[in-house]
Write a structure and sequence with these properties.
- By secondary structure, the protein is mainly alpha-helical.
- Helices cover 65% and strands 0% of the residues.
- It has eleven helices and no strands.
- The longest helix has 17 residues.
- The N and C termini lie far apart (47 Å).
- The model has no long low-confidence stretch (mean pLDDT 87).
């Protein structure tokens, strides 16, 4: 009887497949839980290496480090909260250490305000992702930010509808 590939192998196969990246919202974080502690440490080391090579290029790296609870990534993630992966960095910091400023960063992105290191306002996709992460946090502050965006007249209808569904 043939054995299925390990969770470690499945994770990297999915993670490094450009066709999967085009189709999927993010990495297969469920596979991290199925790995051994040794495999998780190996994944974390590789992800930290990739983060150091090009910090703002890959939200998937940031997402996976957050899911792993990588304390070693925290300083780099804090620097990324003003750039093109701000929402991913903010939710990763929330998952790692319940970073209170995550709500502030996610609200900024959802409201289409630029970060210090962003040449343009966040796209609708990033705004929707930030709103989804605010709902995941679920704190009173996060819910208030979502309600504010949903009722703001200048918010796009699509964003308002998505937030209403999240609340």
């Amino acid at each position: 009887m043939a054995r299925r590939p390990s969770a470690y192998f499945q994770f990297w196969t999915h993670f490094d497949d450009s066709a999967q990246r085009a189709r999927d919202d993010g990495p297969r974080l469920d596979l991290l839980d199925a790995m051994t502690p040794v495999q998780q440490r190996r994944v974390e080391a590789e992800l930290l290496h990739r983060l150091n090579l090009d910090p703002s290029a890959d939200g998937w790296v940031v997402d996976a480090l957050g899911a792993l609870g990588s304390e070693a990534a925290v300083p780099q993630l804090r620097r990324l909260t003003q750039g093109p992966v701000a929402e991913d960095a903010a939710i990763a910091l929330w998952r790692i250490s319940r970073w209170p400023d995550s709500v502030t960063v996610l609200s900024r992105v959802a409201q289409a305000e630029q970060g210090r290191e962003e040449p343009r306002p966040p796209t609708m996709t990033r705004r929707l992702e930030a709103a989804r992460f605010l709902a995941e946090i679920g704190s009173p502050r996060a819910r208030a930010a979502l309600r504010e965006i949903a009722t703001e007249e200048s918010s796009p209808y699509r964003l308002q509808r998505a937030i209403t569904a999240l609340l």
